[in-house]
Amino acid sequence: MDPSDENTASLANMASLTIAANLRSAPAFKKDLQEEAFEESVEHEDEEDSADAPSLRRVLAKVIRLEHVSKHPSAEHLNVAQIGGWKVVVAPEEVAGTLGVFFEIDSVLPADEEWVKAIRMPSKSMFQVRSVKIRGCLSQGLFVGMHKLPLLCSGPVDEEKWLQQEDVTAILGIMKRPEHVVRLNFKSYKHAQNVVRIPFSQVFPDGPCKTEEFRVQSFMHLLDAMMGKPYYITVKVDGMSATYGYDEGRGGLVACSRNYMVELEETLIGELCKTYGLAEKLKEHPNLVIQGEAYGPPVNKNLLQAREVKLAVFNVYDKVRRRRLPYVEMVATCEMLKLPMVPLEEVGDNFQYTFDELLQKAKGFYRGTKNHREGLVARCQEQYDGKGYLSFKVINNDYLLKHGH
Fold first, then answer.
1. Per the database record, which ranges form the RNA ligase domain (predicted)?
2. In the sheet where 107-110 sits, what is the strand order?
3. Where does a domain end: 176, 210, 226?
4. Which residues touch 370 (CB under 8 Å, ≥6 apart)?
5. Whole domain around residue 391: which residue ranges?
6. Mean pLDDT of 58-80
7. For 127-164, what is each residue's pLDDT tens digit?
8. Does residue 59 lie within any of the structural domains?
């Protein structure tokens, strides 16, 4: 066994070692996870009915049959499985045809379940699946064979039944780690966000939906759908989500974080309203909703090394037409309102990138820094299917490894 694996020698077998390497202790996320579960249950149904809402849904734990499995390039007793766009290091007995459950990164496993105890060293209350390198090979996700999951197979396994049901997130008690736990690094603000427990969908009932892009690794068909279409690619800014609109019934300007309404006094999101004159601008254009990323010295680690709090707009939504503005119209609107947009990486008339090319393109640093950028967002310039817009995010793997996602 490689010397780097000596600390896991007490695990029963190599399969357990492989699985344990993909888990990270996450007790600090417990409160955030409980709040996130509440937020998802409140807003999920409303979002499906929104004109701007995507029709896709992320599944944290799903039943799959392994199809593409190869030997680990530098570990004789490990395999590497290709699951959608993810590469996952698996145990040697996990081969093509094996039925089991794939847990995406950001999944948090319930530590009190016996099947979880069997695959890790019992110490902490929660564990998060994350991106890691195992013997030099990037592994993103966790695969557990069906025979190790008594909740799903107490008797003979009905393979077709489970493959059709697919989503076993709730059955196995899997929760999602919030994508961003926003941290303020000084006390200039009384609150950061989430100070009013009014869900996003109640503040903006006519749209847009919450700010979230789908990872292309989980929805590879989006890459095929984008082929040949006019597109634009922007840099994904690491910060906190901020949405602004005008609602006369609520007294004028309203703002939300990713999930909840935010008060405007003594908050970071509220300060940006003053910086960019959003109250006056949106009163003049009450049909518009502005969505962007707030970033700067107090937010997270300020990876962009901004000297002051700033806003980078990535969506402009029209409540009357109930749709996101196309690229050219959005650019013109931001210029008219004098609002900065997220950095543009590329714009073109014919999208032709392969998956591997996009992963490579997502790498790099925020301009003028040595900080790994979070990744890229690719979008179709026009409406894709007459209703919504085709888009997806490509996360920088170096960023994921650096920040424990």
1. 230-395
2. 23-25, 126-129, 107-110, 175-176
3. 176
4. none
5. 196-403
6. 92
7. 889 899 999 999 999 999 888 888 777 666 677 777 77
8. yes
